[in-house]
Fold this protein.
Amino acid sequence: MKLRKHYTCPLELAHDLIKGKWKTIIIFQLRHGKRSFSELMREIKGITQKMLLEHLRELREVGLIDKKSYPGYPLKVDYFLTPRGEKMLEAVNILQDIGISYLTEQEFSGFAVEKRTED
Amino acid sequence: MKLRKHYTCPLELAHDLIKGKWKTIIIFQLRHGKRSFSELMREIKGITQKMLLEHLRELREVGLIDKKSYPGYPLKVDYFLTPRGEKMLEAVNILQDIGISYLTEQEFSGFAVEKRTED
DNA sequence: CCGTATCCGATCCGATACTG
DNA sequence: CAGTATCGGATCGGATACGG
């Protein structure tokens, strides 16, 4: 996700910052501080190596996260939120709350599982 | 954007709610109350009729907005945020602030225009 | 004024294999 | 452990035309 040259609207830019299936989840996982690549792989269910690396790189390119590499073997890299990322975390936390409310409340858990009557 | 049957993570669901190029912008445009379809078309630069209708329908299906149709000609329909939409607006407002900060600050306005030296 | 349908290129994302 | 490359199906979104 390269940012475009021009944006006519701040929200278009901001939405591009978190575009992609995993970006908000990555930001949320970094809420308590740094995480290595392998920790993120373990904590984020269902993500592939390719997707995680790609989204990490993009988040870095737009300045929401940064990383620190430690020399030597085994390789070790820590990813962490920048101040901009911390600000984005505020929005992500709200999204998290909204997601929980949808998963919790009857009205939409019924809808979210498409009237499953079995199990 | 139909919601899936199951989500392993609230953020995956929440991100789906605002997935798509225009959803956050539509929510933001409804921040001060109801808007007719044609008002939204006028206010949201660059959007096509198809995209606006499609995103309005999807936002409605997931319960972030609702609409009220008035009988008679010319047709008139008002769209407005539901309580869930108002909650989502809190996140969108933060995104808006972040977008503004990116467009404003030197570091990223330079980056956002990809080192353009002409014009 | 509001809503639907279709076509088609662009992008996204998962699987998989390979490198330092 | 961390990162790169490629391929192919699925989805997204713009243009355009048509309908109530």
Q: What stands out?
A: Chain B has six helices and three strands. Residues 10-87 of chain B form a domain with the Arc Repressor Mutant, subunit A fold (CATH 1.10.10.10).
